[in-house]
Structures are given as structure tokens and as C-alpha cells.
Amino acid sequence: GDSVTQMEGPVTLSEEAFLTINCTYTATGYPSLFWYVQYPGEGLQLLLKATKADDKGSNKGFEATYRKETTSFHLEKGSVQVSDSAVYFCALSENSGAGSYQLTFGKGTKLSVIP
Amino acid sequence: DAGITQSPRHKVTETGTPVTLRCHQTENHRYMYWYRQDPGHGLRLIHYSYGVKDTDKGEVSDGYSVSRSKTEDFLLTLESATSSQTSVYFCAISRGRDEKLFFGSGTQLSVL
């Protein structure tokens, strides 16, 4: 079945450091890929998405490129801020038939940014 | 914020009792989902719905049932709660396949 593997955390960075959170996936077809972010005490929010190979999703300074050849969707940000401290989830969606689809999440990577 | 309300926000119950969690949306979105979030497991899909009375199982559906009798409400029932079902439960909605998910604020359930 479909699966998403992302780097284990926690990740601790100093403010203005470069961030990479690795994500690779296994899917039978052509999934859409997502990054969600969860701030403390809240539900998840979509950060960015890409729906086909070579698409780049971007939002709030974060970027991720859909790489079909390496089945990857790594999240990057050039300069993190304390406010970026959160848990980040990589996810994919694929059609599961009958007009429906499922979203499969990675286990999450906790990011802490210190001043 | 998307109009998603989960109730209750917190619940403590005893092993063996039935529990129902409610998700209510005001967005008229077709798809609704129940996830559970546990340390070391991320989010795992329990059940989802792609229309009124159209539901299907997710990855961890054992011990759970759902019902969707109208577009706006999606109920999750733990038929006989067990301690392994202690978790944070999130409801989510979306318009369609490649549309983003909007999440509720979660329900913290403790089964003693």
C-alpha cells in the first residue's frame, strides 16, 4: 500500500538556519503530495502541495519539489524563524476507487527553532 | 478558518463503554475524515466519507464505526472503548481529491 517516510525528529535549529525535512513516498500510481503543519494545541493546516511531477509547492518561505524519479518531496526553507516551531507532516493522496481517495501521512517531524 | 466543530473537545471514559464523537461542518464539503494522532505514529486514517451514507474504512478502522446521515455531520463511534483508543481524534473535510484538507481542533479522548 501507499506509504510516506519522513525524517525522524526532533530537529532543533537556530534562528535563520537552513531547514530541510526529507520525505520519500511509495505509491502505485500518481499521487498528489502535501506538507501540513501543526502548531502546538492546534489541528493540521495545509502548508503547500504539488499535484504532478516537477511541480514546486511554496508558501511562507517554504518550498518542496515533486521528484518522481527519486519519489521524494523534501521540505526546505532558507531561513527559519522561531514562529516556524511546529510539527511538519508529509502526506500523499491517491485515488482509492469508487470516486474516493485517501490521504496517507508520515509520522511527523517536530521542529524547534531557538533564538 | 473553515467551519469545523468537533465535540466534545475532551472526554474521559471507562473501558467497555460506547463513545460517540461528532464532527460538524458548515462548508458543505463532500469529503469528511476521522484521524487519530498518536506519538510515533503521526496521523492515521480511521474512516472517511465521500458523500451522505457513503463511507469506507481507513488504515485503523477496527473497533470504530461511522455514520453520515447528512452532509454536515460525521459521527465516529467507539463501540466498546479500550485503553488503546486513548488518543487525539481529528476530523477533517475537503471538497475533493486534490483539494486541501481542513482540520478541526481535535478531541482528546482518555479511556481508563
Helix-strand makeup class of chain A = mainly beta
Q: Indicate the structural class of chain B.
A: mainly beta
- Regarding quaternary structure, what we see is heterodimer
Count of DSSP helices of chain A? 0
Helix content of chain B: under 10%
| Mean pLDDT over the residues of chain A | 90
Number of strands of chain A: 12
Q: Summed up, what is this model?
A:
The complex is a heterodimer of chains A (about 120) and B (about 110). Chain A is mostly beta strands and about 120 residues long.
Describe this structure in words.
The complex is a heterodimer of chains A (115) and B (112). With 115 residues, chain A is mostly beta strands. Chain A has no helices and twelve strands. Chain A has strands at residues 3-6, 11-14, 19-21, 23-26, 32-38, 44-50, 56-59, 62-65, 75-77, 86-97, 100-105, 109-114. In chain A, strands 2, 5, 6, 10, 11 and 12 form a six-stranded mixed sheet that branches. In chain A, strands 3-9-8-7 form a four-stranded antiparallel sheet, with no helix packed on it. A two-stranded antiparallel sheet of chain A has the order 1-4. In chain A, β7 (56-59) and β8 (62-65) form a beta hairpin. With 112 residues, chain B is mostly beta strands. Chain B contains no helices and eleven strands. Chain B has strands at 4-7, 10-13, 19-25, 31-38, 42-51, 54-57, 64-70, 73-78, 87-94, 102-103, 107-111. In chain B, strands 2, 4, 5, 6, 9, 10 and 11 form a seven-stranded mixed sheet that branches. The termini of chain B are far apart. The mean pLDDT of chain B is 92. Chains A and B meet through β5, β6, β10 and β11 of A and β4 and β5 of B.
